[in-house]
Amino acid sequence: MAEPKTKYDRQLRIWGEQGQAALEKASICLLNCGPTGSETLKNLVLGGIGSITVIDGSKVEEGDLGNNFMVDESSVGQSKARSVCAFLQELNDAVKAKFIEEYPEALIETNPSFFSQFTLVIATQVWIFGIII
């Protein structure tokens, strides 16, 4: 594993060691593993975010193969949260990664305080109060 100062050299020049330290302390939650959310999380993982939690209750389908490069043919029928989380963990093993195989809407409804532990929650394709966000 590369020395952190070498691994993140480019971004350290932008926001310095304090900024990098803040990033490394941050905890991100992704609701649903669509292409937009997965791509956003990928950029944060490459930057050295502290931890990620991926929440998605769906399985990888054939249609996902063309729009989410984090899944492949061997992922079809598998947990989307598990597949995306495993891919992201391969990109940067210094990031603590976990997944929850549950539909985000159910978690929002039954345990909304769960989300207070995160620095940032990224929600994509979530139906709340009859609208999609």
In words, what does this structure look like?
By secondary structure, the protein is an alpha/beta fold. It has a single domain, classed as 3-Layer(bba) Sandwich (FAD/NAD(P)-binding domain), CATH 3.50.50.80. The protein has five helices and six strands; from the N terminus they run ααβαβαβαβββ. The protein has helices at 4-7, 9-25, 35-47, 80-91, 104-110, and strands at 27-31, 51-55, 96-100, 120-123, 127-128, 131-132. The strands form two sheets. It has a four-stranded parallel β-sheet, with helices on one face. A two-stranded antiparallel ribbon has the order 5-6. α3 packs parallel to α4. The radius of gyration is 15 Å and the shape is globular. The N and C termini lie far apart (38 Å). The mean pLDDT is 85.
Key structural traits:
single chain, alpha/beta, FAD/NAD(P)-binding domain, two-stranded antiparallel ribbon, 5 helices, 17% strand, globular, Ubiquitin-activating_enz, NAD(P)-binding Rossmann-fold superfamily protein, ThiF_NAD_FAD-bd, NEDD8 activating enzyme activity
